[in-house]
Write a structure and sequence with these properties.
By secondary structure, the chain is of the alpha/beta class. It has 16 helices and 11 strands. The protein has helices at 9-12, 14-23, 36-44, 62-72, 88-100, 124-130, 141-148, 162-165, 167-173, 210-213, 227-245, 253-269, 288-305, 312-323, 329-342, 349-359; strands spanning 46-47, 53-54, 77-82, 106-108, 120-122, 137-139, 151-155, 176-179, 184-187, 193-199, 216-220. The strands form 4 sheets. Strands 4-7-10-3-11 form a 5-stranded parallel sheet. The protein has a two-stranded antiparallel ribbon with strand order 1-2. α3 packs antiparallel against α4, α11 (227-245) crosses α12 (253-269) and α15 packs antiparallel against α16 (349-359). It is globular.
């Protein structure tokens, strides 16, 4: 049994990738393990000619995924943008897994990221002992992707300081990274490209320079357009993570998933599903990813401390944690929603009672 908490996409879905590669007769761009058609099938799901079923990794617009894949088949980099929880990281990982079977070439954007994480660094012990040399060079994920002709991922691009962001311009425009200390440069092999993600709800976001923006084709990933689509996404992801965490997923969980997703969608939009009641929205994003977390927490509570059946008592704590980011304003919003909406729904009386008890 594998003891790792999370397998990489190319490991978790190795059988599907291998089966696709076996039956993929379409033309592949240089260094790609699969054709663009097969990459789209891997992400969106489908049935192969031999009856083998490919599970969907992304549930949403097929055209958006096709545009993203077509972008990566050119020399233009891809920027996935959207509010938190719209599967930007999930899509970027699976794109890299399908294209080059390696999703590990990753730069995680933070406010303190240094330029060497984009370009290269040095092994200072060797640098002091030998001076600048290729042996002392520590390549960044970007440089390694250029050397191998692979896909590199840059997460949360707009959280990276602007001067560090611009270190990407040379790599994306000239397809090279100069190393002046050695009087050389690393030239990108065919197949190299970059997928960046950014969310448009962060405070303190570092805007991209116009020079850097021009190097990207931008694809906006939207929130699920319907209740049923979002319920399906949450159900699939909860089932997948439940297997890893060894939490049994019962059929009754679907009813609770539907309640959580309904609450999130109503508070996000500021309007009840029937369009009759206007609502205040909390300060958080209430993303699909957070709905998944609420259900996971509820399943863990019911399995370890309850009778194994997820219900209102297990959901109440998770809902409060997801909804109340600002203790003052968000608590008011949540109380008003409970009184105006949850209390009035006959089948939700158990949830109203549990949430009121949590609020005290």
């Amino acid at each position: 049994m594998n003891e790792r908490l999370r397998l990489r996409a190319e490991e978790q879905y190795a059988e599907e990738l291998a089966e696709l590669a076996r039956h993929d007769t379409r033309q592949r761009p240089p260094q790609w393990r699969l054709s663009p058609w097969a990459v789209a099938t891997y992400l969106l799901g489908g049935r192969l000619e031999n009856g083998f079923e490919i599970s969907p990794k992304y549930i949403g617009s097929r055209r958006l995924i096709e545009i993203a894949i077509a972008t990566l088949a050119t020399e233009r980099a891809l920027l996935l943008i959207g509010v938190p929880g719209t599967a930007k990281t999930w899509v970027s990982e699976h794109l890299a897994a399908a294209i080059c079977h390696d999703s590990t070439l990753l730069v995680q954007g933070t406010a303190g990221l240094a330029e060497e994480n984009i370009r290269y660094g040095w092994n200072y012990a060797l640098l002091i002992a030998e001076g600048p040399s290729e042996r002392a060079l520590v390549p960044s994920p970007v440089m390694r992707a250029m050397q191998s002709g692979a896909i590199v991922r840059v997460e949360e691009l707009t959280r990276i300081p602007s001067d560090v962001q611009d270190a990407l311009i040379m790599a994306l425009s000239e397809k090279a990274l100069p190393i002046p200390e050695l009087g050389m440069s690393v030239e990108a092999r065919r197949g190299f490209n970059l997928i960046a993600t950014a969310n448009n709800r962060d405070r303190g976001v570092n805007e991209l320079s116009s020079a850097l923006k021009r190097r990207f084709n931008t694809v906006v990933l939207p929130l699920p357009e319907s209740l049923e689509r979002e319920v399906e996404i949450v159900q699939r992801r909860v089932r997948e993570t439940g297997r890893v965490l060894e939490l049994p997923i019962e059929r009754d969980a679907l009813d609770e998933i539907r309640r959580v997703v309904t609450i999130f969608r109503e508070l996000r939009s500021g309007l009840t599903e029937d369009g009759r009641t206007r609502l205040k929205s909390p300060s958080g994003t209430l993303s699909t990813a957070e709905a998944i977390t609420v259900i996971q927490n509820g399943l863990a509570l019911s399995y370890h401390f309850g009778d194994g059946s997820i219900g209102a008592d297990e959901l109440a704590a998770g809902l409060m944690g997801a909804l109340i980011k600002d203790p003052l304003q968000d608590t008011i919003v949540w109380r008003e929603y409970l009184e105006a909406v949850v209390r009035e729904r006959e089948s939700w009386r158990d949830l109203y009672r549990a949430c009121r008890e949590m609020l005290g």
